[in-house]
Amino acid sequence: MKYINELHEGNKMTGVYLCKHKQPAVTKNGKSYENVILQDKTGTIDAKIWEPNSVGIADFDSLDYIDVVGDVTSFAGALQVSIKRARKVKEGEYNPADYLPASKFNIETMYAELLQFIRTVKNPYFSQLLSYYFEMDTELIKAFKNSSAAKNVHHGFIGGLLEHTLGVTRLCDYYAKAYPILNRDLLITSAIFHDIGKTKELSAFPQNDYTDDGQLLGHIMIGAEMIHDAAQKIPGFPEKLEHELKHCILAHHGELEYGSPKKPALAEALALNLADNTDAKMETMKEIFENAGDNNGWLGYNRIFESNLRRSSEE
Q1: Is 314 a residue whose pLDDT tops 80?
Q2: What is the value of pTM for the model shown?
């Protein structure tokens, strides 16, 4: 078995993979086929079963582990697998640790660094709020360490939420030093809290899919509610500070069409939006290049960046 990040166009895929998603579809000509997403710890790859009723294709469902034989091709600049044979495997034929993508960085080391940032916050109300969730809430801490930051766009792996939050917090720490107009305590607190709602928006791996709360409310609203709930338990928490912090959370996607209920009205909200966008986009670009393997040429049009992409020259 080759890991997904080792596959290249023209390879034969053989081995056990997690079926992250499976859905029937129909071509423009009315022919039935199945869309499949295969996953291992290095990432995911799109796959198609063009002959779903053939002898070599046994029954399996989403979140089953399947033994696959297929051809690796390329479509629209991305690798894709044409599955020829597939069967559901039994427990004991695979090691689950091989199929859950995880951060390349040590989770406990990252969390220790996040706690260091928390301890630099001087405002007593923000400090208590951060401690309430990130030092005392053991259930939240466990979820925060193991959650992804997205279903599939960026940081979509175990530890991804922590890695992304730390990246955003580092950028905000730099902004606070570079631009004295910024209230550092508000900015650092909002950076650490900005995606906390994703602990409830997305289910745990291997599903890593939207929960009912995620579908109905979304992580931005969930995060603002979590801040309000905790602030109510801290005696004397100023309403003005709560509203400013919640505004940063509500505006951190920057634009209404990107899911923000509000556009940034505070300098700290603007800085948070820029940091969030920077970390998300740079990680997305990194993952695109990693998935491209040794391909140093043009990778084709990418809908996220609305551009044809390639790596820069080394010389």
Answers
A1: no
A2: 0.77
Label residue 254 left, alpha or beta by phi (over 0 means left) and psi (-120 to 50 means alpha).
left
> pLDDT (tens digit, 9 = 90+) per residue, 139-170?
999 999 988 887 766 787 889 999 999 999 99
Long-range contacts of 196-201 (CB under 8 A, 24+ apart): 196/133, 196/140, 196/144, 196/222, 196/223, 196/226, 197/221, 197/222, 197/223, 197/224, 197/225, 197/226, 198/147, 198/148, 198/149, 198/150, 198/161, 199/140, 199/143, 199/144, 199/147, 199/161
User: Does residue 294 lie within any of the structural domains?
Assistant: no
Residues of the domain holding 26:
4-98
| Whether 71 and 190 share a structural domain | no
85 plus 180 within the same structural domain: no
Listed in sequence order, the residues at least 6 apart from 46 whose beta carbon sits closer than 8 Å to its beta carbon are 35, 36, 37, 75, 78, 79, 80, 81
Q: Is residue 244 part of a domain?
A: yes
d(CA 107, CA 157): 12
Q: Which percentage of the chain shows pLDDT scores above 70?
A: 99
Given CA atoms 300, 302, 308, 309 in this order, what sign does their dihedral have?
A: negative
Question: Is residue 307 in some structural domain?
Answer: no
